[in-house]
Amino acid sequence: xxxxxxxxxxxxxxxxxxxxxxxxxxxxxxxxxxxxxxxxxxxxxxxxxxxxxxxxxxxxxxxxxxxxxxxxxxxxxxxxxxxxxxxxxxxxxxxxxxxxxxxxxxxxxxxxxxxxxxxxxxxxxxxxxxxxxxxxxxxxxxxxxxxxxxxxxxxxxxxxxxxxxxxxxxxxxxxxxxxxxxxxxxxxxxxxxxxxxxxxxxxxxxxxxxxxxxxxxxxxxxxxxxxxxxxxxxxxxxxxxxxxxxxxxxxxxxxxxxxxxxxxxxxxxxxxxxxxxxxxxxxxxxxxxxxxxxxxxxxxxxxxxxxxxxxxxxxxxxxxxxxxxxxxxxxxxxxxxxxxxxxxxxxxxxxxxxxxxxxxxxxxxxxxxxxxxxxxxxxxxxxxxxxxxxxxxxxxxxxxxxxxxxxxxxxxxxxxxxxxxxx
Length: 423
Fold this sequence. Notes:
Elements: H1 4-8, H2 11-15, H3 18-27, E1 30-32, E2 38-40, H4 43-51, E3 55-56, H5 74-81, H6 92-101, H7 106-110, H8 113-128, E4 132-134, H9 136-140, H10 142-152, H11 159-180, H12 189-193, H13 200-225, H14 231-239, H15 251-282, H16 284-292, H17 297-307, E5 313-318, E6 322-324, E7 327-329, E8 334-338, H18 339-342, H19 377-394, E9 399-400, E10 420-422
Parallel strand pairs: 2-8
Antiparallel strand pairs: 1-2, 3-5, 4-10, 5-8, 6-7, 9-10
């Protein structure tokens, strides 16, 4: 049986997971690892599972192996992530998503384009004198963070401390993954030295989440007396309604949803911009084509999502026994739906390992599918497209500087620690 931990902590896998996914998809498209996890890698099987209500997203159903690699209890999960739609099934998920979706519909998001464009241009201009930058820390990270702060109406004096809090939460999640694999021989001494003692990251995550909750509860009280034109005011208005038949949201659900949007809402965009720009620099002909024809930017964003998927894997638990790809899965089986493998399935895409920014048949699964399709997908696309336009305008000669790339060692998310570039 497959040893998922050994594979996913191998530096070669972190640098390029796609050969492994291709081998698994071709030879064992539905297979069980030694840990008991089932991996599903074919496009058709993954797409069907994302839409099938028999595959549960509820954290209450998750056995321990799927709670951040087995180190969070169900109680810790709720303390860390709050009561958010990410870990709920219908009808609770449907109710909360319906409440929030109006604030993130395409028309509302499109109104933000001038602000996103202005910020993207400003961030590039800041680095223009030096002619070099770290594309992650100087550009891909501050762009979505600033925009989500704007969307929430976070006061300017509060933003630096809140950004540090969110970063600390993100780093604690990463350390938790490293704690799970600290005994692997593939982890270097330097990496092991940075890992906190067992259980330490759980405590840091819980403490950080508590501080985030305290801040959001304070901001909610402020908005109750001084409404603004922001997401929190909109959600607060919905949460306060009491008319029969209206969708409502409790205070705990409001805080949990806000935490989800502030924390998880940035990951996809940061990784999309970083992975996407790296892919373009590694494919100079595609990059030159994009420089010559800026009308291809929107199409390029879709291809970059498919080609190097920011969210590689999503977990599910099957409610009852069922068959997937010719394999019988018992009830309560733990499933990893490998979006990255599905997005390079040759049965679904022509030349799937080629970066083709003119690709038209591109119904990928990078943003999920079914009820849990990424709520912030429209915003991520807008931010990535404006990021590319800014780079093409101010840094047409963008290229990598010397040095090895460092990928974040989280097997569920694919993103770079840093991306030094010059132009």
